[in-house]
Structures are given as C-alpha cells and as structure tokens.
Amino acid sequence: MSTTLPTHAQIVIIGGGIVGCSTAYHLTKKGFKDIVLLERKELGAGTTFAAAGLLAQLRQNQEMTNLAKYAVELYSTLEQETGVNTGFVKTGAIGVCQTEDRRLEWLRGSAMAKAFGIDMHEISLKEAEDMVPCMSTEGLVSAFYLPNDGQVDPISATQSLAKGARNGGATIIENCKVTDIKTKDKTITGVSTELGDISCEYVVNCAGMWGRDIGKIVNVSIPLHPAEHLHAITTPIPGLKKHFPTVRDFDGVTYFKEESGGILLGGFEVEAKPWGMKGIPENWKFTELPEDWDQLEVFMECGYDRFPALEDAQIRHLQISAESFTPDNAFMIGEAPGVKNFFVGCGMNSVGIAGSAGVGRALSEWIAQGYPEEQLWPVDVRRYFPWQQNKTYLHDRVKESVGILYEQHYPNRQRATARPVICSPVHDRLKDNGACFSMIAGWERADWFAPEGVDAVHKYDWRSPNWLPYQKEEHLAVRHGVGMYELSSMGNILVQGRDAMSVLQNICTNDINVPKGGVVYTPVVNERGGFETDITVTRTDDETFFIVTAAGTTVRDLDYIQRRIPKDAICTATDVTHGYAMLAIMGPKSRDLMQALTSADMSNEAFPFSTAQEIDIAYARCTAVRMSYVGELGWELYIPSHFTLPVFDAIMKAGKKFDLKLVGMQAVNSLRLETGYRHWESDITPDDNPYEAGLGFGVKLDKGDFIGRDALVKIKEEGIERKIVMFTLDESDIMIYGNEPIYRDGVYISTTTSSAYGFEVGTAVAMGYLKNPEGGKITNEWIKEGKYEIMVEGKALPATVVLGSPYDPKNLRTKM
C-alpha cells in the first residue's frame, strides 16, 4: 500500500472497509484516476472482518434487489480481473417458514423475485432436507429455494476490490486517520489527516460506524448507531454437507451456513444491544467484544430445532463485534444535503457485504454524472432529518433496528421504539378520540380511529388487518359526508424574495406566475425530465410562495431548491414546517361545515378550486387552501401551531351537526389511490416523467425555459413508450399492497407501484406502468387489447385495466 500522502486528489474516500474499497474500484471503472482512499487502521478492520459474508439477492423493491444481484455478478468474476480470490461460492439459500403467515409473506416475495429476475420457488420440506442433510423440518409449514444466492470471504473480497482499485489508478493509504474536512461556500475543498492535508473536490464518507462522527464535521446528519452483532462457529459436525444452501429461519431470527465443516449461526434478535455509547475506542482494529453467551441463546434455541446435531456440537468461536444500524434498517448513500460534493455510503445494517458492490457502483455513477442510473430513494441519505443524529434517539431505536431484517414485513408495520418524537398540537385530542398512531419522519400521525371499546393498536395480518373495518368507515365518510384528517407533518417551505418568482419558474414545470391566492400543483423534474418531487405552491404575495411537500421528503426538497438559487439572487428558502399545523376537511358536506365555521364566503364562486384565502375560524386566522388529495371537495387549513387547539375544538363542535368523522392515514391512502392520485417515490420517481405518469397537465412548455424543459419537449414530440394505468381486481376480497407482478396475456410485464383497497368501488385498486415489450410507442388501444392478471400469494388473479381512475375519472368532485 502507498504510504506517501499526496497533497491533492480529485476524490477522497474515508474508510477502507468493503464499501469504501468498492467505491474506489467503481470510480476507476468510471474513468477517475485521481482517487485517494484513507483508512484509519487496516483495510476491513472496522466492521467488514466480522461479517458472515452472505449474498442474499431479494430485497424490498426492484432497485434494492438490483444492487444485491450485482454483488453476485461482481464477486463471482472479480478474481479473474484482479487475481485475488474473493471466496465466492454459489451456495443457494433456503428460507423456511414456521407459520402460515410467514409462508404468505414468502409467497408474495417469490412473485416479486420472479418479476425481478431472481429464481425463487417453493419446495417441499423433503426437498429442503435433501439439500441440507442434518437439517430438521419438524414444525415447519413450508420452504422456499433461491438457487443463485451465495457467499464470499469478506476480507478476501475487500482485498480483491482494493487490488482492482489500485490497478485502476487509485491510491490506498492505511493508518491515516481523517481529522477534519474543509469546505468553502458549503462545497468540499479538502481533508486534514494525521499525516497532512489533501485538497480535493469530492469526499465520500464510507467510514462505517465512524460515519456519524465524520458527518458531524460538516454538520451533516448521518443517523447510525453501533450495536453488538454476533455469530458462532461450531466444531466440525459429521454428515454436514460442504457449502450447503444458507438456511434462513426468519421466525427463529437465525441463519445457518457451513463453515470449515461446522455450522456458522447468527441472526437478528428482536431486541439488540446498543454499543459504543461512550464512543469507539481509538485502538479499534479487528476488535471483538467480550463473549456473552446469554446473547447467543436465542439463536441456539432455533439452532437446536433446525439442526439437532448442535446439541452435541461444541462452539469453537463466539464472535461478538459491533456494526452500525440506522433507524429504518436501510443504508445511506448519495450526496448529503447542505454540502456540495460530500457523498455518503455507510450505515449498512449488517448487509454491507451484499450491498457493497451495488453501493460502490451507484456512488460512482452519482459522482460521474450527477445521479445514479436508477432511483434509490429508500436508501437516500436525504431521507433523514438533522434531529435524527440525536444520541438518545439512536440508542433507543437501534434496539429494534437490528431485528427489522428478519421480522414479519407486514405492510404498514410500525416501529415501537424511540416514540414519540414529534407530536402535533392536537395529538392528545386525536388520542382521546381513539387514534391509533403511525409514524413518519418522527411525526406521530393518526393512522386510524378505534371506536369506543376497541383497543387502538395495530394487529397485522396479510389478508385482514384489524383496522380495515374502521378504515372503511372513514373512507366512506369522506366519499359521502365529511371527514377531517390532521397532516401537520407535511413539509412547508417558504420561498421569499425579489427573485423568488424567477427561481421557482426555473425549478417548476408548471406556471407559478399566478395572482395572489393562486395555488398551483407542479412537478419538479431533473434535466432528464424525471420527477425530483411534486409540490403545491401557493402565492401569498408578490414575493412570497408557500410550498407544501411530503413529510418524508422535506430535507430532500429543501436542499434541491436551495442548491438551485443563484448566488446573486435575492431569494431564500426556509423550512417552516413546525410553524404550522394542518387540518383537512374533506367530503361533499365539507362546504356546509366550513360555512358554519367562518363568516367568509365558501361558495364555489367566491372560493374556487386551486385558490387560497385567509379566513377566521374560532380565534385564529387560518390559510385555507382549496385542494384535495382524496378526490373530494375540501379545504386544507394551515394554522399557526399555537392556535390549533381551539380551531380543532371548534371544528369538532360544529361537525356534530354534519356527522363529521375523524380520518386516519390509512383511509387517506386508499382514498387517493381510488381516485388515481400519484405518490412520489412509489408512483412517480426520477425515472418517470410527467407524460408517462399522466401528469402532463402540470407542464407548461410555453412559459419559458426551466430545468428539464428540453427533455420534456423531446418526450412530448416523440411520444411515450410507457404509461401509468390503474387496475381493479375482479375478485372483491383480496388485499394488495404494491410491488405485485402484473401479467399481460400470461406474460410478466410490470409490477404495481402502489395498491390499496378501494372501499367505494368495492375492490382492490393498483397503479402500474405498462410498456410494450415489442417496442414502439404505447397506445390506449394496445393497453385495452390485453388480458391482465396480478400475482398475489402465488395466484394470478384477473384484473381490469383502467386508463383513468376507478373513481371520478374526470376529477369533477373536487371542483363542485
């Protein structure tokens, strides 16, 4: 390894684990040569060395699966390029199910796997025992086989990547700790180390469990926390097959693989042990923590059931080390908010070996061209908020984060730890009215309302979760009467200044130059025409615009806007989310209720759709915005936070006359889906453009130049090759949740982007993009000619394609 520290590099990578080495390797493949990787001790000495080396391919969606699939592709061939063996073996894997509910999850997973190009299928318990001699299937109900999963030796794979990076021109320096990061005008300019300074254009934080401290140097939130993680290796066991398929018993929170004739077993316990509350020791290098045999017990209990020979086997090594986990058990990659050219690739949640290849490739694409080849929002570092680096929060959450990987992955599964964090002004009012809360971005939100005598707790089930009947009542109340939901968690951004109009006109595809009180829905697209976000913009005066965006994307959207304000512009963008609460009153009786609350004229003529006015309710002055995300007449009320309680009480009092129903987020989601309203991340992403998404009405090509205009002009002129459509299931009692495979004339063609039950139309509804596999422009005629099915739990269920939406396809009810 080189020991001479250069004074300049184009890119500095901090951290020499498998992710850092993968990033260096892939950057050289993109043509970068001036790369320096700095490792505080030795390559792989932090967390990488302690890994089990498993390569599992199937993840929660197509994009994450693609990252994991690439690891198998790369590590199976890397030795041919570098001459350094990665230890790759294609062992395959078997997932076993102790319960029928787990089998339903795996059936849905196997349908996804097939759609994502992964061979995964159910096998008999006898077949599983034949593949893994010494394994017992007693007490199991099913097993699933993935023949192409594999494993590597973590340190060997790291050294192979490092050799490939050096061959490509990268410099790797060990025993060199980074002590500072230099910036100017919020842009990276260099790093300081124990051996000297390096000026640079980019810094990539691949520092593993040191990543949070590296982020703090430049005031970037990298919310991760170490937890103890362990596996045990037995002495050789007679009759054990070498390199048998990895066995994963999610119900027993344990995995098993062959290791030197014995069994390596480890897993993801339901309640983990946080570690490092007083910091990471300076001398950490290939460090193991004191043995804790009680901690191993939960894995041994499962082990005795799956491999009875463990009763007589000896543990030759119990390895306990530490690695970092994030609040949602998903890793972090991408350019950090607030600092230009500061990239992140850490917080791997014990899937660093499987994720390393894809993460390194994605970061190299991001740096080379300004974006990854496919959208990666589920692992984008911008999904996190500054407050989430709070030590107490991370300590409490990491206890649960470790177990997320193997828990039942029910839709709407809620976290139980580190709550509550953020409560709206009416939180206790909602609780008193039976709210069962869900959480997003730290906010407690009413998910559904339990009637008197019913416990307000989530009871998960793939086919009939306990909240369905109450969600139905709330859904239908909005369709036929009036409902109120609270969404103070929505991101609020105030853009102000003499140049605010020109800044927003450049960012937005729609025309923002509307009179005071005008409200505009607009896509925000990148240079390729793909969605970066979609927002509503309310013009409150000549130089002030009030933006509403999703709760989870507030950091991302604020950063996107701020980066595109010219240095010489008189314009600011400020997050004012916590200054306002939002109550939405929706439904055909909403005008009657609103008129009973205020002296303002709420008629359609005086208060038309897509406008906003300041009105008085109770003792407060609220901004009433006539928009809807549920497909009905209604108003969103933005209320200064400290005035919210009396406004809520006044609405509830007046609402008795109109049978007002409190509504939770489950109903809001089913209402928006039934009406065909898109959701950023699932239905619209940076890989989708407004014309494909059916949102071309939000593009005004004649307003002048804006970001992405050239791409959208070309797309409109040439026509689209894919299009979003909706589906209803022909069977009325099936639940679907998104990512279900779609078949056209018996051939897989796409997956659903989001799904829910449509209580008004009486069946499940879904969205998904269609593309003609034979090429050419897509037409409505071609769409309607097909026969469609949606795969659910291994069954292809007939579905009816809908070009508009199943409910109110012309969107007339919002404009009544």
From TrEMBL:
Lineage top rank: taxon: Bacteria
Residue ranges of domain GCVT N-terminal in the record: 426-703
A Pfam family it matches: GCV_T_C
InterPro entries: FAD-dep_OxRdtase (IPR006076), FAD/NAD-bd_sf (IPR036188), FAO_M (IPR032503), GcvT/YgfZ/DmdA (IPR028896), GcvT/YgfZ_C (IPR029043), GcvT_C (IPR013977), GCVT_N (IPR006222), TrmE/GcvT-like (IPR027266)
Family as reported in the entry's similarity comment: Belongs to the GcvT family.
FAD dependent oxidoreductase central domain segment(s): 370-424
Domain Aminomethyltransferase C-terminal: 722-808
This protein's name: 4-methylaminobutanoate oxidase (Formaldehyde-forming)
Residues of the FAD dependent oxidoreductase domain: 11-366
